[in-house]
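Severity: low
Component: inverse-folding endpoint
Summary: output formatting inconsistent between runs
Steps to reproduce: submit the following structure tokens with default settings.
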């Protein structure tokens, strides 16, 4: 039998609830971090017309746990995070994604990728990479030969742009947005035969030969939607590298290594392939079954634990595709698969399905979604490096616990 402490319940009922500002102040964190704790299930909140409210006893208990073991691994249920890191870049609140309290859905429709990065990085402009350095990166990418995939070319291009930068080892934090600018403008240009222009324009020409009137705008929106999203494994890798004061190039290289994985950055490839078979005439059920069988990792393009009502990034990008010309077949396929998955598994589309639909609509190869995702996420990786440079160096150096056989 479970006994309930009635004194604690009565005391909690008499206590005034904490506002979000008060709860954040009690924990010594920014409001963005408080909402991140809520989205991870570490804190609960109530909402009414006046705003968000928190149980003071729960906040106090959470504050004590953080004081006692600020960096200790979680021993909670499977899926709870190993650590909580403060960030002011992005958070999910009520199924909406925000970059520093600006709704990403609006940013994607109303602002360019470069405008968003200028604001996130706090710089006047995202300066174009030197055309001569772009040519070096292009030659390095070309030397890989036709068997290399697009992420292989990005990895080599990052190294080439680092090698041509005499300031790459300057430890000043101001170098991070400069390096980020070189990468997000130089890499798309190196993938094609053009000098650096707009990021989305160059990336479009690098990935497809089709001419859609709305293509560059849709690609620009996709880049904005992919900039940041809590602490994904690639973002954590970026912060660990930045904790050791790695250069911006090394930060992005470390992050790209974690990003190039079927459970993270390359998941849109399988989603695009699944949609392609539906457009070609397969039933949604058959396409879904084949994708699960071939991938062995669930249904590609579906499921995102941070949203109760579905990944808003998918909703925004698919809605924009719905409004674009010549997208009816692609959207019909995405809707048919989504209905089938909802009926059988009860999960909703995520960003990977939307990226797969975009690449299919634009005539890009199936792995183009991973490149779009990576170029967009470079903006977030650099943003997190800027934040981490303000922290104590090497703070993200965990201690191992030996669990092997005893010595001797």
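Observed output (run 2 of 3):
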């Amino acid at each position: 039998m479970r006994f309930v402490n009635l004194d604690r319940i009565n005391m909690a009922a008499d206590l005034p609830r904490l506002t979000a500002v008060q709860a954040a102040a009690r924990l010594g964190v920014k409001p963005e971090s408080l909402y991140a704790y809520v989205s991870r299930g570490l804190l609960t909140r109530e909402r009414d017309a006046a705003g968000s409210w928190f149980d003071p006893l729960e906040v106090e208990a959470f504050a004590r746990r953080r004081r006692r073991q600020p960096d200790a691994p979680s021993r909670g249920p499977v899926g709870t995070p190993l650590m909580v890191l403060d960030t002011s870049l992005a958070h999910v609140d009520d199924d909406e994604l925000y970059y520093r309290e600006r709704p990403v859905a609006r940013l994607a429709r109303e602002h360019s990728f470069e405008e968003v990065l200028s604001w996130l990085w706090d710089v006047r402009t995202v300066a174009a990479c030197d055309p001569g350095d772009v040519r070096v990166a292009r030659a390095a990418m070309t030397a890989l030969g036709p068997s290399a995939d697009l992420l292989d070319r990005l990895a080599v291009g990052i190294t080439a742009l680092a090698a041509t930068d005499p300031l790459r080892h300057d430890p000043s934090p101001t170098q991070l947005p400069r390096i980020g600018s070189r990468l997000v403008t130089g890499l798309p240009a190196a993938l094609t035969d053009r000098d650096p222009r707009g990021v989305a324009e160059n990336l479009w020409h690098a990935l497809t030969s089709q001419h859609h009137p709305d293509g560059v705008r849709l690609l620009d929106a996709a880049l904005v939607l992919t900039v940041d999203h809590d602490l994904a494994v690639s973002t954590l890798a970026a912060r660990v590298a930045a904790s050791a004061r790695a250069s911006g190039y090394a930060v992005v290289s470390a992050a790209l290594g974690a990003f190039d994985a079927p459970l993270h950055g390359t998941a849109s490839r399988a989603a695009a392939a699944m949609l392609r078979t539906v457009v070609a005439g397969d039933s949604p059920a058959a396409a879904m079954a084949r994708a699960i069988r071939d991938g062995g990792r669930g249904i590609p393009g579906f499921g995102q634990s941070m949203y109760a009502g579905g990944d808003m990034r998918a909703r925004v990008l698919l809605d924009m595709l719905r409004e674009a010309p010549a997208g009816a077949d692609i959207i019909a396929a995405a809707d048919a698969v989504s209905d089938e998955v909802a009926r059988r598994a009860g999960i909703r589309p995520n960003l990977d399905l939307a990226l797969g639909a975009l690449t299919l609509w634009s005539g890009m190869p199936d792995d183009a979604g991973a490149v779009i995702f990576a170029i967009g996420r470079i903006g977030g990786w650099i943003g997190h490096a800027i934040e981490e440079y303000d922290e104590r160096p090497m703070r993200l150096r965990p201690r191992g616990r030996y669990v092997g056989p005893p010595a001797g």
